[in-house]
TrEMBL record, chain A:
Primary gene name: pdhB
The protein's required cofactors: thiamine diphosphate
Tree of life domain: Bacteria
Keyword Oxidoreductase: yes
Single GO term (MF): oxidoreductase activity
Organism: Actinocatenispora sera
Keyword vocabulary terms for this entry: Oxidoreductase, Pyruvate, Thiamine pyrophosphate
Record-annotated Transketolase-like pyrimidine-binding domain positions: 14-189
Pfam families, sorted: Transket_pyr, Transketolase_C
The protein's name in its UniProt record: Pyruvate dehydrogenase E1 component subunit beta
Automatic annotation (TrEMBL), chain B:
SUPFAM superfamilies from the UniProt entry: Thiamin diphosphate-binding fold (THDP-binding) (SSF52518)
Signal peptide: none
Region spans: Disordered: 1-40
Biased amino acid composition, Basic residues: 11-23
CDD domains: TPP_E1_PDC_ADC_BCADC
Protein name: Pyruvate dehydrogenase E1 component subunit alpha
Keywords: Oxidoreductase, Pyruvate, Thiamine pyrophosphate
GO molecular function: magnesium ion binding; oxidoreductase activity, acting on the aldehyde or oxo group of donors, disulfide as acceptor
Organism: Actinocatenispora sera
Entry annotated with the keyword Oxidoreductase: yes
Cofactor names: thiamine diphosphate
GO biological process assignments: branched-chain amino acid catabolic process
Chain ranges of the Dehydrogenase E1 component domain: 76-338
């Protein structure tokens, strides 16, 4: 990541990683109760350098290098939130977030409900997620379904620099626990961000968005798969098929109204994600779309997803991950009905 | 009270000496259990099972007669509330009950050592601690009846809700205590501290280990109060650890101390000292209150399957209430009128509990969807709307 330390102003071209870094910086500046916690987030700036330079500028009490203990990070964040702080926890990798699973799903997610609203826990859990970085096992998981399935959590994932910058700040301001999934393979993708734009003017946190209009089929994805969707739309256009692309941005709560509207126009839906097929996000989306758009559908909802295997060794991940050809194949299938 | 050495009590067992063997030799406690009697270990004690006051070089108490009477009153009332709750479960008014019988001194001693500004994190058996925090004694019963998940305000009473996943709350307490540090509320007499309750079984949990790591590393003003009641449901403490629990503190870099958990005066003195240390910026302490759960783990349990009658009998001789009563009598602090008035208070309070529990209405179904989120909640809103419509469809059919 570029070591640019210019003023936080104007429209700048930023990587997703740098946009997250600047979003965290803004949140730390705006609210003294915001704390960053995690393994290596301090002096190292995180293994992906997302927290680069923040401990230097905000001190060890605001940016905590935590013991190597994921349940400890989330569990103490709960206590800090009960004390009035707004902790932002980093799970170093997706596969290492599972030791904290009890604290996230049994404690963090349920405290507001159990206490009948007396306790709010404004905790953000940042998880770099998804594959495609050629790493060893446990470094490329897609855990989103676990968290989507747990009431009490909100689950969001940006796919662009501008969303990264604003969504992390919105997540930190939320009074609910937010699982913030960062598409790690896309940390270096660049986009323009207007750093002067107010948070209030940004797209709301829990809204999906049509990112490309099209009339022939609807393709839905989020986070790491959005680049594949864009490439697929370009390729399909050469064949004369105009795909409408929707970035979900939010997995819990799902915002499917734009999807319903789109499917009612196109009659065709393809859902793309890296997580395995079985009981994955696409299953939920397909079921709801069937309920809402049954008479508009020209074909069954198609899923392009990871396989129902453990995440494979990295020399095999190109076969596991949804790619341009698999998306186009699904497009062909939906037109074969 | 002066500075304390890092640890107190008996050194580790000698079971490791001798030739290699496939299984470690029984600990003294195991041997004693096999023989049907349990020796008292070395611990801080200020009141013997016979009700004799004894001195300890490091810990003392300075109660007035009225305060001593108050402690006795607390012990009696929380036991009566507990026995009444067990009876309510047996009569079908509660789904389950987790009894504190035998652990009253540990809870009242430590609970009375707390100041208003301190925060308590209980597990699910700390009815005596809640009593000390001013929580209405009927408040936990919604949880055990199945009406709610605990209906008291943690912020109002500085007592968190019960936690059923073993040991999870130790991390919350440490995080809260880290927040006390960040708020600068340590280092003076009106500083704040957190105390977290857990059992001997919880000492095996990873969360408890991580909590101790964080507490040590961040020098958090927290007291770990382990009630070693000797059993995690059916498993004896030897199935959790081969090391006395309080000695584990040394590995985390803070003091550990073992106290007679059936001695309310010693529990008070030890907890007060640890809380003072925390409030004054001296960091965490692990207290092991050595006690015994006289009843079942919960009302679903059958302790006769795993405990001998003679073991239970030997612990009965160390009852926390009878020793206090004996002491008050011998010291001329309590007479028959006093004890009768305490019993009358207990009758009145348990009568109110019984009336409350039996009359507790089922919760309104709309509660199902309340407070899932603090902010927008579209999925739950949609489900609630559907559910209300569905419910209303039965009106007129006589189904509801």
């Amino acid at each position: 990541m570029a070591k640019q330390q210019g003023p936080l102003t104007g429209t700048q071209t930023l990587t997703i990683g740098k946009a997250l870094n600047l979003g965290l910086r803004r949140a730390l500046e705006d609210d003294p109760k915001v704390l960053l916690m995690g393994e290596d987030v301090g002096r190292l700036g995180g293994v992906f350098r997302i927290t680069d330079g923040l401990q230097k500028d905000f001190g060890e009490d605001r940016v905590l290098d935590s013991p190597l203990a994921e349940a400890g990070i989330v569990g103490t964040a709960i206590g800090l939130a009960m004390r009035g702080y707004r902790p932002v926890c980093e799970m170093q990798f997706d596969g290492f977030s599972y030791p904290a699973f009890d604290q996230v799903t049994n404690q963090l997610a349920k405290m507001h409900y159990r206490s009948r609203g007396r306790i709010t826990l404004p905790v953000v859990i940042r998880i770099p997620f998804g594959g495609g970085i050629g790493s060893v096992e446990h470094h490329s998981e897609s855990p989103e379904t676990y968290y989507m399935h747990t009431a009490g959590l909100k689950v969001v994932t940006p796919s662009s620099a501008v969303d990264a910058y604003f969504m992390i700040q919105q997540a930190i301001r939320s009074n609910d626990p937010v699982i913030f999934l960062e598409p790690k393979a896309r940390y270096y993708e660049k986009g323009e961000v207007d750093l002067d734009a107010s948070l209030a003017s940004a797209e709301p946190l829990h809204r999906s968005r049509v990112v490309r209009a099209g009339s022939d089929a609807t393709v839905v994805g989020y986070g790491p798969t959005m680049r594949v969707l864009r490439d697929s739309a370009d390729a399909a256009a050469e064949d004369g098929r105009l795909l409408e692309l929707i970035d979900l941005r939010t997995l819990s709560p799902l915002d499917l109204d734009p999807v319903y509207e789109s499917v009612k126009r196109t009659g065709r839906l393809i859902v793309v994600h890296e997580a395995p097929t079985n009981a994955g996000p696409a299953a939920e989306i397909a079921a709801r779309v069937q309920n809402e758009c049954f008479y508009s559908l020209e074909a069954p909802v198609q899923r392009v997803t990871g396989f129902d295997t453990p995440y494979p060794a990295s020399k095999l991940e190109e076969h596991f991950l949804p790619d341009l050809d698999r998306v186009l194949d699904a497009v062909d299938r939906t037109f074969s009905y | 009270m002066g500075d304390k050495p890092a640890t107190k009590g008996r050194p580790a067992t000698k079971a490791r000496s001798g030739a290699r063997r496939s299984r470690p030799a029984p600990t003294p406690a195991e041997e004693a259990a096999l023989q049907g009697s349990v020796p008292e270990p070395e611990f801080v004690q200020l009141l013997t099972p016979d009700g004799e006051r004894v001195e300890h070089p490091d810990y003392s108490v300075d109660f007035t007669d009225e305060q001593l009477q108050g402690l006795y009153r607390d012990l009696v009332i929380v036991r009566r509330l507990d026995l009444e709750s067990t009876a309510l479960q047996r009569q079908g008014h509660l789904a389950i009950w987790a009894s504190l019988e035998g652990q009253e001194a540990a809870q009242i001693g430590s609970g009375r050592a707390l100041r208003k500004q301190d925060m308590a994190f209980p597990t699910y058996r700390e009815h005596g601690v809640l009593w000390c925090r001013g929580v209405d004694p009927t408040a936990p019963h919604g949880l055990f009846r199945g009406n709610d998940h605990g209906d008291w305000d943690p912020a109002e009473h500085n007592a968190n809700l019960y936690t059923l996943v073993i040991g999870a709350q130790t991390l919350h307490a440490v995080g809260y205590a880290m927040g006390i540090n960040y708020d600068g509320k340590v280092g003076t007499d009106d500083g704040e501290a957190a105390i977290v309750y857990f059992g001997d079984g919880a000492s095996s949990q990873g969360d408890v280990h991580e909590a101790c790591v964080f507490a040590g590393v961040y020098h958090a003003p927290v007291v770990f109060f382990c009630q070693n009641n000797q059993y995690a449901i059916s498993e004896p403490v030897e199935r959790q650890t081969r090391t006395p629990i309080y000695q584990r503190a040394a590995g985390y870099g803070f003091p550990g101390v073992r106290v007679d958990g059936n001695d309310v005066l010693a529990c008070y003195a030890v907890a007060r000292h640890a809380l003072d240390q925390a409030r004054h910026g001296q960091g965490p302490t692990l207290i092991e209150a050595y006690t015994y759960r006289m009843g079942a783990h919960t009302t679903t349990d059958d302790p006769t399957r795993y405990r001998t009658g003679s073991e239970v009998e030997s612990w009965k001789q160390r009852d926390p209430i009878s020793r206090m009563r004996s002491y008050l009598t011998k010291a001329g602090i309590g007479d028959d009128d006093f004890f009768a008035s305490v019993d009358a208070d207990a009758d009145r309070i348990t009568g109110r509990l019984r009336e409350f529990v039996i009359g507790m209405p089922d919760p309104d179904p709309s509660r199902l969807f309340e407070h899932v989120y603090a902010e927008e909640s579209p999925l739950q809103d949609a489900e609630r709307a559907w559910f209300e419509q569905y419910q209303s469809s039965f009106v007129g059919e006589g189904a509801h």
